Amino acid sequence: MTTSMVMASSHIIFLLFFLITFFHFPTTQAQTYLYTNCSSNKTFAANSAFQFARTTLLSSLASNNTDFYNATVSRGGDTVYGLFMCRGDVNLTMCHQCVVNATQQLPSDCRASKEAIIWYDECFLRYSNRSFFSTVDTRPRYGLLNTGNVSNPASFMRTLYDTMNKTADVAAKPAVGRKKYATGTANFSAFQTVYCMAQCTPDLSPSDCRRCLSGTIGDLDWCCDGKQGGRVLYPSCYVRYELYPFYQSEASAPTPTPAIVPPTNTTGSQGKGGISSGTIVAIVVPISVAVLIFIVGICCLSKRMRKNHDSVPEGKSASEISSMDSLQYDFNTIEEATHKFSQDNKLGEGGFGVVYKGTLANGQEVAVKRLSQGSGQGVQEFKNEVEVVAKLQHKNLVRLLGFCVQGEEKILVYEYVPNKSLDYILFDLEKQIQLDWTKRYKVVKGIARGIKYLHEDSRLKIIHRDLKASNVLLDNDMNPKISDFGMARIFMVDQTQGNTSRIVGTYGYMPPEYAMHGEFSVKTDVYSFGVLLLEIISGKKNSSFYEIEGAPDLLSYAWKLWRDGEPLELLDPTIRESYTSTEVMRCIHIGLLCVQEDPADRPFMASIVLMLDSFSVTLPTPSQPAFFVQSGTDPNMPKDFKFGQSTTKSAPMSVNEMSVSEVMPR
Ligand SMILES: *[C@@H]1O[C@H](CO)[C@@H](O)[C@H](O)[C@H]1NC(C)=O
Ligand SMILES: *[C@@H]1O[C@H](CO)[C@@H](O)[C@H](O)[C@H]1NC(C)=O
Ligand SMILES: *[C@@H]1O[C@H](CO)[C@@H](O)[C@H](O)[C@H]1NC(C)=O
Ligand SMILES: *[C@@H]1O[C@H](CO)[C@@H](O)[C@H](O)[C@H]1NC(C)=O
Ligand SMILES: *[C@@H]1O[C@H](CO)[C@@H](O)[C@H](O)[C@H]1NC(C)=O
Ligand SMILES: *[C@@H]1O[C@H](CO)[C@@H](O)[C@H](O)[C@H]1NC(C)=O
Ligand SMILES: *[C@@H]1O[C@H](CO)[C@@H](O)[C@H](O)[C@H]1NC(C)=O
Ligand SMILES: *[C@@H]1O[C@H](CO)[C@@H](O)[C@H](O)[C@H]1NC(C)=O
Ligand SMILES: *[C@@H]1O[C@H](CO)[C@@H](O)[C@H](O)[C@H]1NC(C)=O
Ligand SMILES: *[C@@H]1O[C@H](CO)[C@@H](O)[C@H](O)[C@H]1NC(C)=O
Ligand SMILES: *[C@@H]1O[C@H](CO)[C@@H](O)[C@H](O)[C@H]1NC(C)=O
């Protein structure tokens, strides 16, 4: 079985590993070469047009300092296609070095081949005379295993496949602007964690990527069954797993892990036959157990240290100590604070109840929401939910301070935010001038962070479901604070399932899949955020947008301007004096991405925060927004769209208005 294997390249691998393991303590890290495959039945003549084309192609690849690049070169009727990709966690310096080496190594390894591929740990590069961009290629494939056996192969492989599948799912559908690369871990036993990685070339579609990865995952069985580590490399994608962290964790600051050479009792290579013949050959390079333990030790240590660094405060320690008692307010206290819910203290009224301003005995100002609805929920459940929501703490969220229960009466007590809600200023022709572009941009970013926190950083994964201008309050420094999150939870509207018969939301901010079918997800909030973003830029309400220039609503109007190449026309005339056009353009672009029809196309909140923070993140092209109505229909009620009635009540004096939510039966 070894016959085909024992070839020159294998010797090189062996030597290389030997050298790395025993003599090489790198000062400048070199890439780790793995394997080359050259087509032997498709060749070209020396000094042919193809050879020149290849030379040009390789130098073009070598000169591009990115982590993925494809190129096409034609010479005298011959065309050569090529690309390279670096592993997702490899930095550009290392990547470039690897690619340069590849472009030098490949022509000498494969002198006259019309098709070839070279793999390293850090990158791979391939070319061919046929166009292979955006297609899934699974051959040649290459398997590499860590020869150590695991103690309980059957259950280990189950855990592995499960984790690999999940990792592959993420890799195939990354957040917008991210690579098709993912890592994942799972605890196999108390002492063993399996680390997985999957990556596709970015030119593949999500489904092609997943299909490709499924192939490699299936081949793990073929190459690495019961082994402590392994990888399967295809020309379009690859996977790898080990019992130690072999990749740089993304979030971690670049803690330069001191030269982690893989504990290389590894290395094998594929024989020439297909799967069926099952010819796999592994070259075993010994390494001392001590070194292995040492390295694993370092990895664990550095991992632990990293963990400590980026552990997000989740309000556990502090607020878990604060018991229910501190959250509970006495009814008399509340009555006193609000002068018995006097009309003078009323701040606003919404779907969940009336909001009053209150001043506690110690002088603290609070906003008190007297819930009107019989929620059908027991006192204990109510308390539990309040306690959970009260733990959500973020500077862009209005804090829930506590609650009060007295008989049928249920009351929520919030931090008081002195300024008015965003809609009060934004949609008022006289006041909107207070919000110059810098302030609006700050508001946009703050809202994005607050929602991201609700979606991802809090332990709860709260979907707001009623994000809108009147639910964004502004403090004295014009920092936005989102209110009314967690209401669905407090009201026992099913929060965990993606489908509900009760719609909580406001017309104009609801995406079609939610308004029509009750389907919600984090993308529901993304849609509302997009509407809000476009409202902030334009200073116009989506829900009361009258036909302008042939567009029935704000979204269509924004889309039309975008398509016509004049997006800046959307900008609120009152701030046309001073703004940064790149920022405005980017915000419009992001807004349009958020309101796309297909929830899957809308970016996640984390990506949005990233897009707003970094201009180097490239944005995909938006597709037509949902609710794009051809002209001639009722501007406020698109076709095929029926539910309750439109209900945006923004009380004109809505100072610190806590809710204008609607609970509607479907
Ligand atoms: C070269 O060999 C591969 C299999 O190794 C085969 O699929 C392909 O058709 C061959 N190409 C030519 C031109 O013979
Ligand atoms: C890099 O890629 C660009 C296209 O993205 C191409 O025009 C250029 O020739 C390549 N080389 C360099 C050195 O940028
Ligand atoms: C890169 O690949 C894409 C398809 O994935 C193709 O449309 C594009 O033309 C290629 N670029 C070059 C420079 O060949
Ligand atoms: C890139 O990564 C290599 C190896 O992982 C490291 O030695 C080098 O310092 C890194 N360079 C930068 C600029 O981070
Ligand atoms: C490529 O890098 C390897 C080490 O990984 C080195 O041995 C080889 O000489 C390099 N090739 C070229 C052409 O620089
Ligand atoms: C690539 O080259 C081979 C061998 O010369 C030839 O049979 C094949 O048709 C070529 N493929 C394309 C797409 O030109
Ligand atoms: C792993 O198991 C195989 C057979 O199951 C055995 O031949 C091999 O020696 C074992 N390797 C180690 C390192 O224990
Ligand atoms: C992983 O996904 C494949 C299909 O892609 C499926 O056949 C297999 O059962 C899954 N394995 C686990 C453990 O989920
Ligand atoms: C694995 O276990 C450690 C502690 O034993 C825990 O911190 C970690 O979250 C677990 N990881 C997974 C993926 O379950
Ligand atoms: C290269 O890949 C082809 C197609 O998978 C395979 O038949 C051949 O044996 C490989 N060559 C080497 C040297 O591994
Ligand atoms: C590596 O694996 C081989 C074959 O299973 C075994 O003989 C050797 O002792 C192992 N070396 C180390 C350092 O574990």
UniProtKB/TrEMBL annotation:
Location of the Protein kinase domain: 341-616
The Gnk2-homologous domain covers 32-132, 138-246
Any keyword Plastid?
no
Instruction: Provide the leader sequence positions.
Output: 1-30
Record InterPro entries: GNK2, GNK2_sf, Kinase-like_dom_sf, Prot_kinase_dom, Protein_kinase_ATP_BS, Ser-Thr/Tyr_kinase_cat_dom, Ser/Thr_kinase_AS
**Membrane topology qualifier:** Single-pass membrane protein
State what protein this is by name. Cysteine-rich receptor-like protein kinase 10
Phylogenetic classification of the source organism = Eukaryota, Viridiplantae, Streptophyta, Embryophyta, Tracheophyta
